[in-house]
């Protein structure tokens, strides 16, 4: 669990850090952070509210991710267009850390508890020429052995879509808001605020889509206390970078890959990095159904398996 909580965190104690986890298998497959990927994925409004589009409406989507030691992350999303009221999207997320034994101060077992986090999101997007603007309101909560916390958070995002090329640029300001119930009065926690920007491009006549995303733009130093680096500037720069891509094999199958340097640096062992920071996946489309699987490298002790199933109700009705 400690490794999971460490992912994508700036140094310090951050509450509701589960909001930094990939929301679906496609996002997980391309590195876990992306705000510019205008893809066939109804989950992406959770990463940047401006990524929602009418083409993704009426497509309920469910996601499930398994982490080591029984940790499970589930979510579901749905978008619908309401005419002049525009496109609205909703999502729910639930993270269970599994059953953990509890003990009193003398070491006597007192039972067990199941820590859990959750979030409910409502999002709206508007378009103006080649630009899209979106906002998401989130109510988030956490419960660890009876210690509960709650917060209201806001995401704001923008997207530029090139009129002639398959080129997009995105910006997302995420998770700013306030807590109305603090989980602890002793530990001073921060909200998982972030500023992310990125670009995605599919070169003409090439079956390939490439994304470059920068995160934690408001904070330069992402190193851990007492960490020794041989090339501190280059390593710190790369900790802000996530690289992702898709091989578009045909209209039914895409192959996903990604690299997240911050994840690799924070979750690797000192003697070996293994697969930490890397991710691979596959996106399979068949009529009204789309199934995505991704395998994400988190820690040598265990990695993440991510699944997404999306159903296009418009196609089902048409057929």
Describe it.
With 319 residues, the chain is mainly β. It has helices at 2-6, 25-29, 232-238, 261-267, 313-318; strands at 61-66, 72-81, 87-96, 100-103, 109-113, 116-128, 131-144, 147-161, 167-181, 194-201, 208-214, 241-248, 253-260, 278-286, 289-299, 302-311. It has one domain (2-318): Porin, CATH 2.40.160. A hairpin with a 5-residue loop joins strand 1 and strand 2. It is globular, with a radius of gyration of 20 Å. The N and C termini lie far apart (45 Å). Residues 1-12 have low confidence and may be disordered.
* N-C termini distance: 45 Å
Number of strands: 16
The share of residues in helices is: under 10%
- Describe the largest sheet: 14 strands, antiparallel, barrel
Q: What are the low-pLDDT stretches, counting only 5+ consecutive residues below 50?
A: 1-12
């Amino acid at each position: 669990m400690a490794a999971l909580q460490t992912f994508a965190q700036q140094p310090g104690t951050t509450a509701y850090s589960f909001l930094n986890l990939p929301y679906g298998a496609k996002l997980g497959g391309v590195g876990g952070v992306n705000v510019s990927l205008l893809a066939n994925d109804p989950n992406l409004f959770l990463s940047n509210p401006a990524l929602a589009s009418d083409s993704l409406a009426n497509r309920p989507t469910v996601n499930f991710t398994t982490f080591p030691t029984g940790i499970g992350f589930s979510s579901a999303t749905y978008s619908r267009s309401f005419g002049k009221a525009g496109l609205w999207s909703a999502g729910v997320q639930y993270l269970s850390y599994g059953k953990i034994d509890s003990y009193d101060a003398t070491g006597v077992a007192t039972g067990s508890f199941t820590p859990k986090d959750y979030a409910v999101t409502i999002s709206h997007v508007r378009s103006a020429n080649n630009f899209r603007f979106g906002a998401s309101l989130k109510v988030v909560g956490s419960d660890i052995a009876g210690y509960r916390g709650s917060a209201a958070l806001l995401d704001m995002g923008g997207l530029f879509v090139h009129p002639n090329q398959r080129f997009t640029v995105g910006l997302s300001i995420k998770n700013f808001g306030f807590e109305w119930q603090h989980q602890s009065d002793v530990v001073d926690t921060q909200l998982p605020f972030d500023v992310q920007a990125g670009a995605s491009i599919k070169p003409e006549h090439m079956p390939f889509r490439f994304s470059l995303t920068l995160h934690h733009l408001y904070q330069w130093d992402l190193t851990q206390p007492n960490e020794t680096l041989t090339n501190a500037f280059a390593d710190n720069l790369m900790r802000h970078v996530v690289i992702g891509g898709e091989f578009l094999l045909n209209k039914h199958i895409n192959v996903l890959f990604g690299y997240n340097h911050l994840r690799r640096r924070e979750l690797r062992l000192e003697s070996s990095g293994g697969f930490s920071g890397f991710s691979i996946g596959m996106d399979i489309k068949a009529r009204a159904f789309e199934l995505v699987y991704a395998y994400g490298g988190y820690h040598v002790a265990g990695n993440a398996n991510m699944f997404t199933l999306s159903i296009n109700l418009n196609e089902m009705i048409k057929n």
